[in-house]
């Protein structure tokens, strides 16, 4: 519920696809929540993005030497990665 409350209001209007984990069903309103199986491919994009973050930002993976407990450093590194991804890495792919 804490996570849901932190989501900006404009994003809360979107349709949410997830797996059948009960925690999602308890938090996301029924009219927006669409639980689906992996075979539908509806969650593939976000899973791909999560994997990209894990591959490029080791500090988001627990039990590594580069893991940082400082939230401020997480935010700085994420913003730097997003900037680089959108300005350097993404144009090279497309």
Q: What tags apply to this protein structure?
A:
94 residues; mainly alpha; 4 helices; 2 strands; globular
- Structure classification: mainly alpha
Order of helices and strands: HEHEHH
Mean pLDDT: 83
Query: Which range best describes the helical content: under 10%, 10-25%, 25-40%, 40-55%, 55-70% or over 70%?
Result: 40-55%
Strand content: 5-15%
Low-pLDDT runs: none
Q: What characterizes the major β-sheet?
A: 2 strands, parallel
Cross-sheet strand order for the largest sheet: 1-2
Distance between the termini: 37 Å
Rg, Å, rounded: 16 Å
The tally of structural domains comes to: 2
Annotation field: number of helices:
4
Q: What is the count of β-strands?
A: 2
Shape: globular
Q: Topology of this protein?
A:
Elements: H1 2-6, E1 16-18, H2 22-27, E2 33-35, H3 44-56, H4 71-93
Parallel strand pairs: 1-2
Note down, in words, how this protein is organized.
The chain is mainly α. It folds into two domains: 2-40, no CATH class; 44-93, no CATH class. The chain is 50% helix and 6% strand. It has helices at residues 2-6, 22-27, 44-56, 71-93, and strands at residues 16-18, 33-35. Strands 1-2 form a two-stranded parallel ribbon. The longest helix has 23 residues, at 71-93. The N and C termini lie far apart (37 Å). The model has no long low-confidence stretch (mean pLDDT 83).
